Amino acid sequence: MKIYIKRWIKIIFKELLITEVCEIPLEMTRKGGIGIYKKIQSEIKTLEDLHEQVGKAIEGLPKGTLRCTNCRETDQFYLDGKYISKKQTNLIRDVAQREYYEQALPVIERRLKILYEMEACYKANEIENCYTSLCNARKKLVAPLYESVEEKIKSFLEEEYESGKFDEKNYTEFISLKGERVRSKSELLISDHLNRFNVAYRYEKPLQLSDWNRKVTFRPDFTVMNRRTGRIFIYEHLGMMDDESYIKTFFL
After folding, report:
1. Facing residues of 223 across strands?
2. Do 219 and 236 meet the contact criterion of CB atoms below 8 Å apart?
3. What is the rounded (10 degree) CA torsion for 52, 53, 59, 62?
4. How far is CA 8 from CA 11, 194, 197, 239, in A?
5. Distances (CA, A) of 83 to 87, 95, 96, 139
6. Is there a smaller number of Cβ atoms within 10 Å at the N or the C end of the chain?
7. Element (H, E) at 78
8. Distances (CA, A) of 148 to 131, 145, 226
9. Predicted structure pTM score
10. CA-CA distances (angstroms) from residue 3 to 7, 130, 247?
11. Is there a contact between 240 and 31 (Cβ–Cβ < 8 Å)?
């Protein structure tokens, strides 16, 4: 179990610093133009891969024109005008698949053309820049349509909330480089590591979740914001996985 947890922590750190992991759809992750731009790029990548797969598949499928009819509730097939026996089901299926691919291929190409044009002319931060270009005095008067990533990070780091309570009988204090008290040596190492890499995070920031008809307040160990995208991630350390009562309390 300890080996697994150590490896999991290493993976989480790598993902926090490089890509994305465990995304939490909080209201403050509201996407602006950059989100739309990334969706366009993602759709382009999906369609490019699909176009390549379909093109290769067509090359390996049999040629010919398939005609399908139904006589007395029985399907009948003709390939280039000649009747095909049901014993040649694989041939019939392959020709039908090829014709379907050939019908879909130009649709994929048309959609890619549209997306390429959108990618070329779409300015991801154009709306956000209408706000960021304002002077500070005017910014105080205006409610932006979209928050820039910089504004999200600023709001995230400056948001005030009541810190979690510590057991009065626990006299051990672990103080991070950020000057905040954490609950264990492991959390101290994690907190200091996040600070060294300039990762925007909050410690035990309250998170309200819905549990059927009631709201439950949860305090994850670390709430992290990606500085490139403004997305929120939850990092729960799970530092006592060898304690059965801890496991039951956390997962049940």
Report:
1. 202, 234
2. no
3. -150
4. 5, 16, 19, 11
5. 12, 14, 15, 75
6. C
7. strand 74-79
8. 8, 10, 13
9. 0.48
10. 6, 50, 17
11. no
Q: Which of 158, 224, 238 is nearest to 191 (CA)?
A: 224
Instruction: Look up residue 124 and give its two tokens.
Output: 């991801």
Phi, psi (rounded to 5 degrees) for 68: -110, 135
Closest of 47, 217, 212 to residue 116, by C-alpha: 47
Both tokens of residue 176? 């991070």
Nearest CA to 235 out of 243, 252, 223, 226 is that of 223
Determine the Cα–Cα distance for residues 165 and 167; give it in Å rounded to an integer.
7
**Tens digits of pLDDT across the chain (252 residues):** 333 444 444 444 444 443 333 443 433 334 556 678 888 999 999 999 999 999 999 999 999 999 999 988 889 999 999 999 988 999 999 999 999 999 999 999 999 999 999 988 887 677 778 888 899 899 889 888 877 788 888 889 998 988 888 877 767 788 988 888 888 888 999 999 999 999 999 998 998 887 778 888 888 889 999 988 888 898 888 766 666 776 666 555
In the three-class reduction of DSSP (H, G, I as helix; E, B as strand; rest coil), residue 3 is classed as helix
